[in-house]
Amino acid sequence: MSSQDEQFPAAAPEPAAPSADDGMTWWYRWLCRIAGVLGGLSCAFAGLWNCVTINPLNIAAGVWMMLNAFVLFLCEAPFCCQFIEFANAVSARADKLRPWQKAAFYCGMAAFPVMLSLTLTTLFGNAIAFATGVLYGLSALGKKGDAISYARIHQQQKQMDEEKLTGTLEGQA
């Protein structure tokens, strides 16, 4: 090893930042993260409240809701789980997922306790977690096009429809 190598040791590869090709702006990404944290809070409190009963389905739904809260905190806000060694690794892996995958995962997680026990507590407790999945799903659809391209497409369709109409009328005459 040369003296220069000893002065500047090789840097460890940094974890990959969220992919820029997913089409999410910085403010929308933060909106999704904040919605995930709020969804985790609502799942945790409603799940705890749901467990204070003697109905076994309500208890199972409450436990599932608290598990949802833990997963949401782990994926969206790993700094809330500093006592868990693998929190940053799970968050980095969750950041690599495509938005539609996160949407399906979060919506599925939030729908299960509601199907298990349909009560107001499970419905309202999972609403924000489900909304987080919806936000990720909307980002998977992509950006809206500009008005000029839509006007061109509309004009082309109009011309094609007129050509078909005149061709049909000439064929009948």
Automatic annotation (TrEMBL):
GO terms for biological process: vesicle-mediated transport. The gene is Cacfd1. Its main location: membrane. The chain crosses the membrane at residues 30-49, 61-84, 105-136. Belongs to the calcium channel flower family. Keywords: Membrane, Transmembrane, Transmembrane helix. It is a multi-pass membrane protein. One of its GO terms (cellular component) is endomembrane system. This is FLOWR protein. InterPro entries: TVP18/Ca-channel_flower. SMART domains: Cg6151-P. It is found in: Endomembrane system. It comes from Pampusana beccarii (Western bronze ground-dove).
